[in-house]
Specification:
heterodimer, A: MetI-like fold, 79% helix, globular, B: alpha+beta, D-Maltodextrin-Binding Protein, domain 2, Dipeptide-binding Protein, domain 3, 2 domains, 11-stranded mixed sheet
């Protein structure tokens, strides 16, 4: 197991290098720069040039790249131009918010997605199956932005059950966190729960048709044991892949939800950074996010190894 | 020897405003003290460093906490804020400010002239508009209550520039002088002090108990005047989605919001618990021709564009109906306002436009309208202008990018654009000088060929800056505006209204360039 983790971590280094290079190139090659944003709507070219000089943006691109990698090798991702904070600090301030929201959304996704997918597979072609798949389709089709707005109108404005937005950290007030995170988590989760439900259903149907399942049933094993121990365990391998993707989507795709519900998470931070051409923030923030997603993928690989002995032996 | 004037005398001579006092003459007192006010702000804030940021979102919050020597009143005229009096020498080269007594920073330290010197030092080094101090020879603090500025040459408009709120020289503790750009500690002298700032989330302020109001006034006026913090705390929550701001206002989670979507107004107006407050003259919508490239280098072509425009149609689309037609580059309530050049505005005569077009020799080449979707007003006005121009045979094409890209492209004439869409808000509010500087090099937005100023325009600009009398400078402004419009160096389309709202139990809220949290209270 340790070998798998070490190998995966080793292969992550070139990925991070390539991502950092692409990020640097892309953010610098698109027109516009932070000086224009800082200077405001009707700034003069002289004022913009002054700011550009102050920020070192009038230096050749290669010089800026050299500085960026020089800092990186010393563990310094630079300082956000617009926030005035170190990139690592600004990112780490927001990351727990997004991770907490993603974790909450993941729990909802797994409960709804796995539950409805398994039930739909076990009751194939019944009304339960039809209803579950209709809801899955609605979840997939409904933009989470629209769903979020509908929930705000219904649960916050009409029923006054939940706040319209804002964020309370779990460590400050667990109930406050639950109140401010529930609607965002649901709006994030429903889309992915629909996806997971459909994949779980099809995977389960495939597994349920296997000979070893028929054998288990023929042996007279209880239905619950057959489903949980034999069918679900085998179906979990492809489902784990999808869950890995879902975790990545939750982390990287939270921007719309964070914007709608005024949640100061990493998605909003990076979007603002891109829109404002905050180069160090974009470069450093994306590098940290990429590293996180690489870790998620390593986690998925570890799960494979735990679920499937063949992977363990191959990787040993 | 200094010849002392009270500010009102100086201002009268300089063409600026006298100190404002309340109509009633009674000093403001909070009718109710207490409560926590939450305001839904539309845009994210970056830093709260008011010296190095000119973004509206920063100003909205920071200017409730910071103060400066001079600022602007309700009609954007210069007034004293942290200075008690100001004197100007007869040669107009030296300005002596006597500081108000007993002012303390939020950290409890008394403000002295050493802090003012340090603040000016920091601004001169890293302030966003530090070039405005280019004409200052030096500043000094002869004693702890006096601050003196020496100019290199006479500059009648110096006080107007000094009182600018675009990226103002706010006074901070001397020990913060070395704070890098965007990293200034939020320790000011204002009625509100910072509790916590979570970028992308919220900024929370509390009443500064050690605040000493400016007793030279009876009421709040503009950024200054007699200010009192009536709420216990004020939180600016960043709510970028308009419908979320509406929802927050309806539920009462937000007691005040800015930039309400027009589609929600009818619903909100029928809600007795909400008071809609339009902020007129938020900005002037501008279509900016590039006169360095064809066909917009041709005056007759530009006149053809000017002649076809229906400003009501354009502004209606740009603002969802919240606009006022406005000639030129100042708002009607401002000292320099003039309708000079009104004959060039809102002509909406396609026949005349076609005649000009024929005279221009236009051959159907593409005309690129450079706009963005970050500001819907800019995109929508470009869209309507495109249709109106196409109607007379102009091959108008939209180039839609994001705001940083379009603003960057518009800094140079050779980046593939003919007309650039922008909005002038703060510059217009700051006065005629601030607006018209955008028509002379190195800032000339109409991109004169070879970077050479139009001599007639430059002459009027120089007079605006140097004529000793207010009347003379006003006439120079009117002349300059008329000339700009006649030459179609710019197309001011109209004035946008920003719609704000508060809960009905919020009293004393008067819209301004920022949401002012002083002298505002809960009724119950």
């Amino acid at each position: 197991m340790a070998g798998i983790i070490i190998r995966r971590l080793g292969s992550a280094l070139p990925i991070l290098f390539i991502v950092s290079l692409i990020t640097f190139a892309m953010i610098h090659l698109i027109p516009g720069d932070p000086a224009v944003v800082i200077a405001g709507l009707s700034a003069t070219p002289e004022q913009v040039a002054n700011i550009r000089h102050d920020l070192g943006l009038d230096q050749p691109l290669l010089t800026q790249l050299w500085r960026w990698y020089g800092g990186l090798l010393h563990g310094n991702l630079g300082r956000s131009i617009l926030l005035g904070q170190p990139v690592v600090y600004a990112t780490m301030l927001r990351l727990p918010v997004t991770l907490a929201l993603s974790a909450y959304a993941l729990v909802i996704t797994l409960l709804i997605g796995l539950g409805s997918g398994i039930i739909a597979a076990l009751r194939q072609n019944s009304w339960v199956d039809q209803v579950a798949m209709v809801f899955a389709m609605i979840g997939i089709s409904l933009p989470n932005f629209y769903l979020g707005l509908l929930m705000i109108i219904f649960f916050a404005v009409q029923l006054r059950w939940l706040p319209t937005g804002g964020y309370v950290a779990f460590s400050d007030d667990p109930l406050g966190w639950l109140a401010t995170s529930t609607m965002p988590a649901i709006s994030l989760a429903l889309l992915l729960a629909g996806l997971l439900a459909r994949i779980t259903r099809s995977t389960m149907l495939e597994v349920l048709r296997q000979d070893y399942i028929r054998t288990a049933r023929a042996k007279g094993l209880p239905r619950r044991l057959v489903v949980v121990k034999h069918a679900l365990t085998n179906a979990l391998i492809p489902i784990t892949t999808v869950v890995g993707i879902i975790v990545s989507l939750l982390i990287s795709g939270s921007v719309v939800t964070e914007t709608l519900f005024s949640i100061p998470g990493i998605g909003q931070l990076l979007t603002q950074a891109v829109l404002n051409r905050d180069y160090p923030m974009v470069q450093g923030g994306l590098l940290i996010t990429t590293a996180l997603l690489v870790l998620v993928n390593i986690g998925v690989d570890v799960c494979y190894a735990l679920l499937d002995p063949r992977v363990r032996y191959d990787g040993a | 020897m200094l010849q002392r004037f009270i500010l009102s005398t100086v201002c009268a001579a300089a063409g600026l405003a006298a100190m404002a006092t309340s109509v009633s003459g009674e000093t403001f007192k909070c009718p109710h003290v207490g409560g926590n006010f939450t305001f839904g702000q539309e845009a994210n804030i970056n830093s709260l460093d008011q010296m190095t940021s000119s973004t509206i979102s920063t100003r909205n919050i920071a200017m409730n906490m910071f103060e400066s020597l001079m600022t602007r009143d309700e009609n954007f005229n210069p007034i004293l804020e942290l200075a008690d009096s100001m004197a100007e020498t007869p040669d107009h080269l030296t300005y002596t400010f006597r500081l108000r007594q007993g002012i303390r920073f939020h950290n409890g330290k008394e403000m002295t002239s050493a802090d003012v010197v340090a603040s000016f030092d920091r601004y001169a080094k890293i302030g966003l508009y530090r070039s405005t101090l280019d004409n200052v020879d030096r500043w000094e603090a002869p004693d702890k209550d006096t601050f003196v500025i020496h100019l290199k040459k006479v500059q009648p408009t110096f006080l107007e520039i000094l009182s600018s709120f675009n990226a103002p020289i706010v006074i901070v503790p001397a020990e913060d002088k070395g704070d890098p750009p965007m990293q200034l500690k939020t320790i000011g002298t204002g009625p509100w002090q910072l509790v916590e700032s979570v970028p992308g989330g919220y900024v929370k302020m509390k009443r500064y108990e050690g605040y000493k109001p400016n007793t030279n006034f009876d009421q709040r006026t503009g950024f200054g005047g007699y200010k009192q913090a009536c709420f216990d705390t004020v939180t600016f929550r960043i709510v970028t989605e308009p419908q979320a701001r509406v929802a927050g206002l309806k539920t009462g989670e937000l007691q005040g919001v800015e930039d309400l979507p027009t589609r929600s107004l009818a619903d909100l107006k029928s809600d007795k618990s909400i008071t809609i407050i339009p902020l007129q003259n938020w900005w002037i919508q501008i279509a900016q021709p590039n006169v360095s490239v064809p066909p917009t280098d041709n005056l007759m072509f530009r006149k053809a564009v000017q002649a076809v425009l229906d400003m009501d149609e354009i502004m209606d689309a740009a603002s969802d109906g919240n606009y006022r037609l406005n000639v030129g580059f100042q708002y009607p309530n401002q000292a320099f306002y003039s309708d000079a050049g009104k004959e060039t505005y809102n002509i909406k005569n396609p026949d005349l436009a076609k005649k000009y077009l024929a005279q221009s020799g236009y051959q159907g080449e593409p005309v690129i309208l450079l706009t963005d979707k970050d500001y819907p007003a800019m995109y929508n006005s470009a869209l309507v202008m495109q249709q109106e121009m196409q109607a007379i045979g102009i091959n108008a094409q939209l180039k839609v990018v994001d705001w940083p890209t379009s603003a960057n492209m518009a800094l140079k004439p050779d980046t593939g654009w003919n007309i650039f869409y922008t909005g002038w808000g703060t510059n217009t509010a700051l006065g005629a000088l601030s607006s018209m500087q955008l028509f002379v090099e190195p800032a000339a937005v109409y991109m004169p060929k070879g970077g050479q100023d139009d001599p007639e325009l430059l002459a009027a600009w120089n007079e605006m800056n140097s004529l000793p009398t207010l009347q003379g400078r006003k006439e120079a402004f009117a002349r300059m505006q008329k000339y700009v419009l006649e030459q179609v160096y710019s197309l001011p389309l109209g004035s946008l209204t920003k719609v704000q709202a508060v809960r009905s139990n919020v009293k004393g809220y008067v819209p301004y360039r920022i949401p002012r949290m002083s002298n505002v209270w809960f009724e119950n």
